[in-house]
Amino acid sequence: MTNEFVLEAITREFPESVISYATPYDFLTLEIKKEDIKKVIHHLRDSSLQIDFLTDITGIHYPETPEKEIGVIYHLHNMRTNFRIRLKAFMPRENAEVDTLTDLYAGANWMERETFEFFGIKFKGHPDLRVILNVEDMDYHPMLKEYRLEDGTRTDKDDKMFGR
């Protein structure tokens, strides 16, 4: 299976769903409309492409791009042919919600809970979307880029030591 073959199969089946594509490091990466991401993944799993292993789900935060501030990233794998694909869906932060994949992949349960916890992305239809790694009363999402990386008041470090 090649990137071109899979890309052509997806764009033929879902011509309006694919927003963009690229192949960084020869890794097929598609941006899909957020409302279509589940049906595209369902098709990849159940079609002759047999991309049926969910490797990872995570989030990403681009605070400088309000219309695409929050993204969900899915890594999928065909174990028979060793073909991997990355799918991305972006949305505004106030509407950070996508459909759950727990009915397609049992392993999505933990990954979606972790992504919810760290990025605040809600997964519609998830059976138990609650905190699993952080303290329960944490009222923020630690992976969002909302805070300075360093404390400007520190006097115990010299930026020259870090190449700055």
List keywords for this structure.
7 strands, 26% strand, alpha/beta, globular, Beta Polymerase, domain 2, five-stranded mixed sheet, 20% helix, single chain, 164 residues, two-stranded parallel ribbon
Task: Summarize the structure in words.
- The chain is an alpha/beta fold.
- The chain has one domain (3-148): 2-Layer Sandwich (Beta Polymerase, domain 2).
- The protein has three helices and seven strands.
- The strands form two sheets. The chain has a five-stranded mixed sheet.
- The longest helix has 12 residues, at 108-119.
- The chain is globular.
- The model has no long low-confidence stretch (mean pLDDT 91).
CATH classification, class level: Alpha Beta
Largest sheet: 5 strands, mixed
Order of helices and strands: HEEHEEEEHE
- Principal-axis shape: globular
What fraction, in percent, of the residue positions are helical?
Answer: 10-25%
The CATH topology annotation reads as Beta Polymerase, domain 2
Low-confidence residue ranges: none
Please state the CA-atom Rg, rounded to the nearest Å: 18 Å
Q: Give the integer mean of the pLDDT values.
A: 91
Q: How much of the sequence is in beta strands?
A: 25-35%
Task: Let me know the CATH homologous superfamily.
Answer: NADH:ubiquinone oxidoreductase Nqo5 subunit
Terminal-residue CA separation: 45 Å
Number of strands: 7
Helix/strand/pairing category: alpha/beta
Question: What is the overall number of helices?
Answer: 3
CATH architecture: 2-Layer Sandwich
